[in-house]
Design brief:
The chain is mostly helical. The protein has two domains: 2-229, Rhopdopsin 7-helix transmembrane proteins; 239-274 and 295-313, no CATH class. The protein is built from 17 helices and no strands. It has helices spanning 2-18, 25-49, 51-54, 56-62, 69-81, 96-111, 117-126, 130-164, 174-199, 205-229, 263-280, 290-297, 301-312, 316-333, 342-348, 354-365, 369-376. Helix 1 (2-18) packs parallel to helix 10 (205-229), helix 5 (69-81) packs parallel to helix 8 and helix 6 (96-111) crosses helix 7 (117-126). The longest helix has 35 residues, at 130-164. It is elongated.
Length: 378
């Protein structure tokens, strides 16, 4: 019943996604990913109930279905973290192993048409025939490879948002990292259960399969809930990306590593930025981004990021939040603000959440906001 409920939830969540306003490419990928997870759970239910013995077509499609879980996780992570271009048809190539081995499975089932399907299933699952040995190894290890790549993409994303955003709330994808880690647990369990169950008979295979699909069920609930709420991180490319920097002799480029920005030009851009921060105080906007500042200054966001990194040794996140911390410190020191809570002051200075405020303030001062406040009192 748990797996049936999990499958029903996996099929219901895509309906909610398709009713979501302003759907992104990532939303469509998530809907398909959840639907495939639902099919995996439904296939396992059919296996436990012996439905495949009566309807071989289910066995044919379901045998290799788990091969799609790793690629779909990877494609979803890619779709939600990339900003340069949308996904394209080339991503369908990740389904080639599933299609190939599914054709092989159907070919074997066709040989046993009208005979014992169970005998064919045993050959497919346990045969020493090279193609079925390759099938078994691919099912076991393919997902783990994709999940490791997905994990690396998410780690890269966490660094990237520090270079482009002044906040992390709703865009750090911590929930997705937890889902990927949960999926890794699935594949570690798959490998362990195959070693202990298939080769040594130390643990019943059914128990191992139950554990695997229990984690899949939890991933459906957790991933679907947070995925539906996830906002778009990277909007359409900003106009600033196409605008040449307003500094003599500087040509805009989309590759930071190949930037033509000289040191003196970088310092000139930084001076322009510092004046803007002092005069306009854009850091009071809790969702300030690098692209916003670049648009307002009419310069390339790549050159702006380079100017901050080269001259200050900071990313955009630390640069902006440094101004916010300083304003918080000033306000805390003013007697007129004693009637306000620290959180109210933090929001007034541009912080968008309590957790980020506490984390950033301690990073810059070595003290929590409350410790700093107490230190000021005589």
């Amino acid at each position: 019943m748990i797996f049936i409920i999990g499958a029903a939830q996996a099929f219901f969540l895509p309906i909610l996604i398709f009713n979501k306003k302003n759907r992104s490419t990532a939303d469509y990928v998530l809907a398909f990913w959840l639907a495939m997870m639902g099919l995996v759970l439904l296939a396992y239910y059919q296996e436990v109930k012996g439905v495949a013995a009566d309807y071989p077509i289910f066995l044919g499609f379901n045998t290799c279905l788990s091969m799609l879980m790793g690629p779909l996780t990877y494609i979803y992570v890619l779709s939600i973290t990339r900003k340069d271009q949308p996904l394209n048809a080339i991503q369908l190539l990740h389904a080639i192993p599933y299609v190939f081995f599914t054709v092989v499975v159907f070919a074997k089932l066709n040989e046993y048409q009208g005979q014992s399907i169970e005998e064919a299933r045993l050959i497919i699952e346990d045969s020493k025939i090279p193609v079925f040995m390759a099938l078994g190894l691919t099912r076991i290890f393919m997902g783990s490879i994709y999940l490791v790549i997905s994990f690396m993409l998410l780690k890269k994303h966490r660094k990237q948002i520090g270079d482009e955003f002044s906040y992390t709330r709703n865009i750090n994808l911590r929930w997705l990292l937890q889902v990927v880690l949960a999926m890794m647990v699935i594949w570690i369990t798959v490998i362990v259960m195959n070693v202990l169950g298939n080769f040594n008979d130390w643990i019943p295979m059914r128990l191992g399969d139950n554990l695997i699909h229990m984690v899949v069920t939890l991933a459906v609930f957790f991933g679907g809930f947070h995925g539906i709420k996830q906002q778009v991180i990277y909007a359409a490319p900003a106009v600033a990306e196409k605008t040449e920097a307003k500094v003599e002799g500087v040509e805009s480029t989309s590759q930071y590593a190949k930037s033509s920005l000289r040191k003196d030009q970088s310092q000139e851009l930084l001076k322009k930025l510092l004046n803007y921060m002092e005069d306009e105080k854009p850091f009071l906007d809790g969702k300030l981004s690098l692209n916003q500042v670049a648009q307002n200054l009419e310069i390339s966001s790549n050159h702006l990021s380079q100017a901050i990194n080269e001259n200050l040794g900071k990313n955009f996140y630390d640069f902006v939040n440094g101004y916010r911390v300083e304003m918080v410190k000033q306000k805390i020191a003013e007697p007129a603000n004693e009637r306000f809570t620290l959180l109210a002051i933090a929001y007034d200075c541009g912080f968008s959440s309590k957790s980020s405020f506490n984390e950033v303030f301690k990073k810059f001062t070595g003290l929590t906001p409350s410790q700093y406040q107490k230190q000021l009192k005589p």
